[in-house]
Write a structure and sequence with these properties.
The complex is a heterodimer.
Chain A lengths: L12 H21 L14 H21 L3 H5 L1 H15 L12 E3 L2 E3 L1 H19 L7 H20 L3 H7 L1 H8 L5 H8 L11 H4 L1 H19 L2 E4 L2 E7 H23 L2 H31 L2 H11 L8 H13 L30 H32 L4 H25 L17 H19 L7
Antiparallel strand pairs in A: 1-2, 3-4
Helix pairs in contact in A: 1-2, 1-16, 2-18, 4-5, 4-6, 5-6, 5-17, 5-18, 6-7, 7-17, 8-17, 11-12, 11-13, 12-13, 15-16, 16-17, 17-18
Chain B lengths: L5 H26 L2 H10 E6 L6 E2 L5 E14 L8 H8 L3 H16 E3 L5 E3 L8 E8 L1 H7 L9 E11 L5 H4 L2 E3 L2 H6 L8 E3 L2 H5 L1 H4 L4 E7 L5 E4 L15 E3 L3 H10 L5 E7 L4 E8 L9 H14 L8 H4 L8 H12 L26 H7 L2 H12 L7 H18 L21 H8 L6 H4 L13 H12 L3 E3 L4 E4 L11 E3 L7 H13 L19 E7 L7 E8 L6 E7 L5 H18 L5 H9 L5
Parallel strand pairs in B: 2-12
Antiparallel strand pairs in B: 1-10, 2-3, 3-6, 3-7, 4-5, 8-9, 10-11, 12-16, 13-14, 13-20, 15-17, 18-19, 19-20
Helix pairs in contact in B: 3-4, 10-21, 13-15, 14-20
The chains are: A mainly alpha, B alpha+beta.
Amino acid sequence: MRQGEKLTTNLDWPLLITYFLFLIMGMATVYSTSLDPDHPNLFDYSQKYGKQVVWLGVSLFLGLMVFLIDSTIYRKFAVPIYISTLVLLVIVLFMPPINGARAWLQIGGFGIQPAEFAKTGTALLLARYISSLNIKQQNLNSVLVANAIMFVPMILILLQPDAGTFVVFTSFLFVMYREGLTYDPLVLKLVNMIPGVKFKQTWVGTHFIPIMFAIVFLCIVTLLLSNNIITFNFLPGVEIPGFFGVILSLVVFCLIAFLFLRFISTKRERRRISTVIIIAFVLSASIASSVNYLFQGLKKHQKDRIELFLGLREDPNGEDYNRNRAMAAVGSGGLAGKGYTNASVATIESNHVPESETDFIFCPFAEEWGFIGTFILIGMYMFMFLRIIMIAERQRSRFNRVYAYSVVMILFYHLAVNIGMNIGFAPVIGIPLPFFSYGGSSMMSFSMLMFILLKLDSQRSHVLQ
Amino acid sequence: MNFDARKYVIIVFIITVGIIYIVRLFFMQVIDDSWTLRAQEIAEKRKQIVPPRGAIFDRNGVKVVSNRTYYNLMFIEDEVKNLDTAAFAQVLGWSKDSIAIRFKEIIKEQGTYRDKNDNYKTKSNYQSDRPYAFIKEMTLEEIATIAPHLDKFPGFYEEITSMRSYTYPNGANIFGYLSEVNEEEINEDHFYRRSDNIGRAGIERFYEKELRGQKGIRYIVTSARNNELKPYMDGIYDTIAKQGPNFKLGIDILLQEYGEKLMNGKRGCIVAIEPSTGEILALVSSPTYDPNLMVGNRNIAKNYPKLILDKDMPLFPRPLAAEYPPGSIFKLLQSLIGLQEGVITPNSGFPCNKSMVGCHNHPSAGNLSDAIKFSCNPYYYAVTRRILQQGKKTSVFADAEIGLNKWYQYMMSFGLGQKFDADATGLRPGLIPNSAYYDKWYGHLRWAFSTIRSISIGQGEVKLTPLQMANIACIIANKGWYYTPHFVKSIGQKGSLLQFRIKHRSMIDSKHFDPIIEGMRRVVYVNGGTGGKAKINNEEKIIVCGKTGTVQNPQGEDHAVFTCFAPMDKPKIAIAVFIENAGFGGTWAAPTASLMIEKYLTRKVKDKEKEKRILEASFKK
């Protein structure tokens, strides 16, 4: 820290305030869902909310520590931090399994999940590695190294097994994409093996990551909606076949994207943007159609499996039991919700939605606050993500930028998968909702991610890394 | 190379997902109701609170039908854990094996049910997460030995239920009984849930919708283990159960009790009606049964088979549903029609000519009142011939057709040949033949008075229910009109049903009733009258006007019938007594009626000799 600087110098207040708002909302929801009328004291340590208060205190203390340490330490110690998280990930594999996964390290009376901290370690090392490259070094080798940094902890996590965190690690692919580390060299190598072909760059290879994710997302949504008939209770008699609804939504999204991009793009780029959007529309419409067509052509038992996975069928004993109940809790919230502490489906006491204080914490929130609450919540997350991207883009240091993108993509993944499984858009894989879910490891690791980012940002003018 | 533009890909990606999620949430939470219903299905229990049925009081305010609390021992199979069968059997005082047998029985009960045609149907309805009664309808004493031990047997709990209780062991055929609803009834009326009770006969059935009250509904948040946690939304959607209103009957329960006592050992009925209102004061059907025998499904299972198999048919409401030839009491109506038609006058006399029909030995009646007094058969042949054959057509057959149809209209105006619109179930219409009826038997224009003459004296095809017989006495007492006989005086704050407040007029002018009433007085009070035994205390303070009847019975001993009203000047009670196989009407039916009148008007019976004679008589074989 330089002389004469205060802790709050260059601090990004909007992000910090949003973070604190999430803490308050999350704490309130944990309190509501696990409220024991005999122990209404928020600070009752025997209750989950009492414990969560402790976790919050610990997290904020760690955050303060982060602020007291000069930010250069994260670059310097990225490798030891990464390696120590890997060591923890290995150690945890020899622990007794809890709920079928070897994810917990017992230290004293507490259990911590190394996988949560591995995200921070990986983000730091990836940032350090990418920032050490110059443009010319971004070849097949560097792509493989960056992928290795990502895949080693991923594989260890899959061994636990923890499918949720495994999926979250793929968020680093977007970070690499942003930094120009794509699978293009790999694709080029394969394509150029064909005699007579000599590409310098392939569009598919370059944009492989977002395209893949867009396709997966589109397929899921198409399958979810294609069998439905969309009806409106305020427009009786109007029935829209689900597949038509998908195409209609695509048209609307393309128009919105077009207008948005027009607004931010230069005149020169507009033609290109129009072409890209038209191609994107045609591609996605044809993907949706073929998914729809293929699905209808499947045999019954194959259809059943897919429908079960997507939660279109109720499987009372399987995972879908949870999701169906979670969706009932969310959907029953209505416009304005049932009122704070009035949730009837998603509480620990009623236990219709299991894990309603951790992985399914969106349920009690949505049930109690209704659409107004969920709209504000998602809006706040969107604001936070865009704010972090803004912060990322204002960094002079590439290390800081890579790290910031890692943070935003990790948080975004958590949001998308966690809420997705509450609204039937994602299979049930247990990952916490950032800053909301009960649990020490996730709270501490998200807070550390956030405070390191804030610290790096506050010292952005110091270093030219 | 500059990759800055790629930030837009990421931004668009994030925003797109955000928008899709918000749209999806808008659909799920605001537009689509199905998730709300699903949540209710999952987390809420609608608990119905079945209120006690309305209480029933007699005309003097005596509570005759009330409710008592009973206890069901309920269980939910999914919550029963590690049941210690031996200990449980010991608590219940059962054998160890019978516990398992009972569980099987419950599943079987839910698997089969009886529809309204009494056919057994099979359909498996048993669900292990639903409550069922392990033991039904235990008394407080019975549950008291079990309840303290229930906490050792998770999954079992007690539940309060309300059942009928009858102050007097009388009036079973008036009140009817309750039993569990069947599948059809549940489907027809969504008020009912499995194991609810429904009125099966009598007032309980007729006034089911009023008596049952309004169910209350409590919405309770339940856990995944089906525990009840708290009222849903602090109970703002709950509704309170409302007991059915109090019913007040026209029945005088003490008179009813007395009537049933008098009819003990006899088959037959007594119907007593207040002529000025049409309220039924007593409706005795004999033999009868104690209504407490049919309270609760345990009792019904035990007693119903016995009652239904009894050859004397105690469940059969004779006063409403038994159709008998009226015998000589029919002569009262023939007289009235004759007078109204102008074919006779009060001073008409006909010789007691026994050429066509037998008669007992009495002097020829010189006027109408004496004809009633003597109950002269040939006299009424002559009267009825004049009514039917008025000479309006030259063909005797065509003439009889016109006459009979006219006569039929009169009879209909007395409420005969049709079901009363009364508040009872199982009513029968009786039978009054018209031309169409005889055309079917003999062919069109193939019959005349001589063919059908036995209807003159209330024999042959004519059939009346005892309720109709009593109503004839009402019409005469009122000199020409009647209210539909009914049980219920008032329902809660409301009066009786509208249909009981409409005066029905017969086609007879009131002036024609005087000679008839005089004749009925002579039946009881003048020497040679057939109903001398109907005198009360041999005094003439309460003048009884009556008419005896002896119904010829080809199967055995004749039936005795007596219909009357009293006092003569201001009639307060009209009665019909019908005793099967008791022979001459004046011997048994008349004194029974007089005892009823005395009991009702003076609240006590002085003539113990007469009472004892009736009580000891038995005409059952």
